[in-house]
Structures are given as C-alpha cells and as structure tokens.
C-alpha cells in the first residue's frame, strides 16, 4: 500500500496548508541541522526549518547530497517570500513496504498515481481577502492543534490567483502550485459559502 504524503481530508471543513517539494536540504551550518534552505531541481532556494519529528528522520536516514520529496507546511508574508516547515520526508522505500530497488520505480509516477505532483500544495481555509488589482488572495488557516501556548494558532497565506469577491469569508479548498517563492492557484472549490454570515 502506497502511503500518501498528503492524506485525504477526513472532515469537510478540515483546514490545512501542506505540500510536497522535491529538492535537497542544505543546513545553514553543520551543527544546527534544523535551519537552512530547500533547493529545488531548478536551483531555487527556499528558507526552510525542519520540525522536531522530521529532524530525527533527517539525522538517521537522509544523505544531504541527495534530493528527496519533502512534506512541508508553507508560510509567507507576501507572494515573494515563501518559508517552509518540513514535517516529513516521503520515501516510498524506507517508509513503506516496497522492494528497495529505487532504480525501477519513478517517484514522480508514484505521485501521479496519488493525483499529486512535485510542488503541489493543498490549502483549505477561509478566504479573508481578495485583491483583484494585484490578482492575490489571502486564506486564513486555523491549525488543528488546540494548545494554549501556541500564539500562531491561525496564520494567513498570500496566494497568486483570482477568486470572486462574492466568495469572501467562504471556506475554500485550493489546489496550489509552487512557482519559485510564490504559491499560485490552480483551481479551487467552495466548501461552504460566507461563513461569517452563518455565525
């Protein structure tokens, strides 16, 4: 059974921002592995932090000279400065019951079987801002972790794309493609219209 790096949604109103990127991780310095850059196959650098559970994987299994598929959470302040948090590494051989002969299997084809591809992001949340002039939208995502210590329980993502102003405050599910340091809307689906009017 192939483990899906971006699991199917379990709840209609599940909020999330998660993606998959193929690239090499380069730490800023060798004694601090959790901060650095993810460098994609075009040579583009994205500022990256490795979260706790992925850090132990990185230390035990990862060869920093090789490219991997990284499961990441995106953060940004505008459409030009993407920041990633690595949540995991998708390696069907080490992390699934596959015969370990990676030369015979194409990871990109495996991703296609799951309806995914490199640089794909799934973003689900409330549409809180539309800039028709700049063709930008902002989605507010509330993280599922209910913790009193977390100040950043919700965060906003700035995405290049167009959605009708009439859908402001609707809950939307977006298919996003990463282009350099930008997130671009491919398609969207309205899950629930105008949330705030229903509250």
Could you explain the architecture of this structure?
Helices cover 11% and strands 47% of the residues. With 199 residues, the chain is mostly beta strands. The chain has two domains: 16-116, NigD-like N-terminal OB domain (OB fold (Dihydrolipoamide Acetyltransferase, E2P), Beta Barrel); 122-198, Beta Barrel (OB fold (Dihydrolipoamide Acetyltransferase, E2P)). A hairpin with a 4-residue loop joins strand 6 and strand 7 (136-142). The protein starts with 15 loop residues before the first strand and ends with a helix.
What characteristics describe this protein?
199 residues, mainly beta, OB fold (Dihydrolipoamide Acetyltransferase, E2P), five-stranded mixed barrel, 3 helices, 11% helix, globular
Summarize this entry quickly.
With 199 residues, the protein is mainly beta. 11% of the residues lie in helices and 47% in strands.
What's the helical proportion of residues? 10-25%
| Shape label | globular
CATH class of the largest domain: Mainly Beta
User: How far apart are the first and last residues' alpha carbons, in Å?
Assistant: 41 Å
Write down the Rg.
17 Å
Query: Helical element count?
Result: 3
String of helices and strands: EEEHEEHEEEEEH
Beta percentage is over 45%
Number of separate structural domains: 2
* Quantity of strands, as a count: 10
How do the strands line up in the largest sheet? 1-2-3-5-4
Q: CATH homologous superfamily name of the largest domain?
A: NigD-like N-terminal OB domain
Mean pLDDT equals 87
Largest sheet data: 5 strands, mixed, barrel
| Fold-level CATH name of the largest domain | OB fold (Dihydrolipoamide Acetyltransferase, E2P)
- Give the low-confidence spans: none
Secondary-structure-based class equals mainly beta
In the CATH classification, which architecture of the largest domain applies?
A: Beta Barrel
